[in-house]
Amino acid sequence: MNRQDFMRASLLGVGGLLTPAAFDLLRPIESSPVPARIGRDEIAHVRAAATLFSRWDHTYGGGFVRDAVVTQLRWSARLLQAGASQRERFELHEAVGHLGHVTGFMAFDAYAFHDAERIFKFALACAEASGNWHLRAKVLSSMARLAIWRGHADAGMALTDLALMRTDRLHATEQAMLLTARARALAKLGRTQETLRVVGAADEAFARANPAENPPWMAYYDAAQHAGDTGHALFDLDVRGYPTEASRRLATAVAGHTAPFARSRTISRIKLASLTMATDDPREAVAIGTYALDTAGRLRSRRMADDLRELHRYARPHAMIPEVVELRHRLATLVE
Known about the structure:
It is a single chain. It is built from 15 helices and no strands. The chain is an all-alpha fold. Among the domains are: 41-131; 252-336, no CATH class. This is Transcriptional regulator.
């Protein structure tokens, strides 16, 4: 047997690896064993996984590695049944809760809404078991955003109110995050003056923020994120005919987001294009939207895809402008 025949036999043939039967080679894969007792190393591993997957989510969206993070969460959850000291058990619940939040938000971004709701509830249970009010606030904030995104603004407000019941236990950055979520809900409900008041309160809270005191899962909430979140809330007022500074805030977010936060930057840019298309210069909106499309193809985010559809709708009244026609064609191609 010559070398080529040997390699073909060893690898079952290139075509063989692509047959349905070949996929049986991956089933079942034995799960990694869970130690009888956990310590600092296992807690550090779970924390590292949460940080890694969170970075991936911010940069590429929730659609790429969701299965991988779910598998990691299931294995990490099994650690909760292992022996540990009381202190380590609290820290493990916190670490697993953080990973659960990352997993839930990936599901939200991928529009696996039922999965997101269940995983967020698990993450919330972990946060409460750990006694960590900061993680609890983060999970409740994301649960509120999910509810608001799905059209349940009242439920979203109730979740933010639940998190804000003990503001004395929360850092200023966390208060700002929760208030911006509440402002989004109020804007969806058409409560203009309350929206403006809560955005102002969020700005005041963020002005007091000290990044050094924030837990790891709040590292993303910088000036760009705050500008984008408040800009998204004010967007709904602008498109209903009540002028605000939404455009300035969204532009600040676009300029401030760095490469690791590509999804947030792209979503804010799309939202800015939609706002400009709806209330200002359609040709300027085309320029903004075209730039957003150049980066959108590298992301896997159903939330972003819905924002692109929204831009397509806002562009419809200007369909006689050649540049708008071309943009709508590109949008239709990308989100069909």
